[in-house]
Design a protein that fits this description.
6-stranded mixed beta sheet; about 35% helix; elongated
Length: about 325
């Protein structure tokens, strides 16, 4: 089959990978001139299904629990398997208990255990939650590597294009995120803002989630003294620069986690709009002959692999109408 995939964010790249792996001839187009600059480029890259269960429910775990293994199998060495540590200041221990009640696959960590996991946080928190089965990656490493792999697999990549050359495609897969809002009436924009900080005074080995009164703040180590701090969730499609309030809240959260962040250099601040359906969960929609893969909200890297595999099932079921979806998918995975 000749298949056109629109959009080179994490959803489009993952979908193109699984389709090419299944034997399709895939062309991928992207309106931007190169990889980067989209919502995926600004993401935290947290592969944290159990933490995300707090706001997303069991479906987040079902769709996301295999994500870390998919990324590691697809791009060996890209994933850091160090788990997630959730902490809160003493005044917010009630919120920490509420977080624990709404999640699973964690254990309580006292001050001594926190110090063992993250020596630079020794003495700063009396209790926390450790999610040992979670992981993270750096989107700015993963996306270019996945692009390179797709090229090696024979996927035709065409950047700076809104539409494909005149070719007979049997399927069109739209993974363009919020740009598809005109076609998907219930798709809305959720603005996220983030900072990149640099300091040699703090060393962290895993994602730290810091309980915040307004929104969950996470700090993800990027290596070489760099950290990503994010992200706000604002019901808005405004793609303007980071607001003063958000910047102050993110910086205050980083400083509360460790005072040495007060001397860190701000090397980047950016905002992006993430697509979301009313359920805040991604979905596959068919409309006017196009398959839409959209609505990832804050779960792009976590859920894109599962949705990409579902797209393959959908395409195979359509193409092999004499067989069930299960049969077609089982034959593909066996091969």
């Amino acid at each position: 089959m000749r298949i056109l995939v629109k959009g080179a964010g994490v959803a489009g790249l993952a979908t193109a990978h699984e389709l090419a792996k299944a034997g399709a001839h895939v062309t991928l187009i992207e309106r931007r001139p190169d990889i980067g600059g989209n919502a995926s480029w600004l993401a935290g890259g947290m592969l944290a299904p159990y933490c995300e269960q707090e706001g997303g429910g069991p479906e987040v775990v079902r769709l996301g629990r295999q994500a870390a293994d998919w990324w590691e199998k697809t791009l060996p060495g890209i994933v850091t398997f160090n788990g997630t540590l959730v902490v809160a200041p003493p005044r917010d221990t009630t919120e920490l208990r509420r977080f624990a009640e709404r999640t699973e696959a964690h254990c309580w960590a006292d001050g001594e255990e926190i110090a063992r996991l993250e020596p630079d946080l020794a003495g700063r928190f009396r209790t926390g939650l450790f999610f040992a089965q979670e992981a993270h990656l750096d989107p700015r490493h993963a996306l270019p590597l996945l692009h390179e792999k797709l090229t090696s697999m024979g996927v035709d990549m065409d950047f700076g294009q809104d539409s494909a050359r005149e070719e007979p495609f049997e399927r069109i897969i739209d993974c363009t995120g919020f740009a598809a809002a005109q076609a998907l009436a219930d798709l809305r924009g959720v603005r996220g803002e983030m900072l990149h900080l640099e300091t040699r005074e703090v060393n962290l080995s895993r994602t730290i989630r810091f309980i915040h009164p307004r929104f969950p703040v996470y700090i993800v180590p990027r290596g070489e003294g760099r950290f990503m701090v994010g992200a706000t969730m604002i019901e808005s499609a405004d793609q303007g620069p980071v607001s003063v309030r958000s910047m102050m809240e993110l910086l205050n959260a980083a400083y509360a986690l460790h005072p040495a962040f007060g001397e860190a250099r701000i090397i980047e601040m950016a905002a992006g709009v993430r697509p979301a359906f009313p359920s805040n969960l991604p979905a596959i929609r068919k409309k006017n002959g196009t398959i839409f893969v959209n609505g990832f909200h804050r779960h792009g890297f976590l859920m894109a692999p599962a949705l990409a595999c579902q797209v393959v099932q959908t395409v195979l079921a359509d193409h092999n109408s004499g067989r069930t979806c299960h049969e077609a998918y089982r034959e593909w995975t066996a091969a």
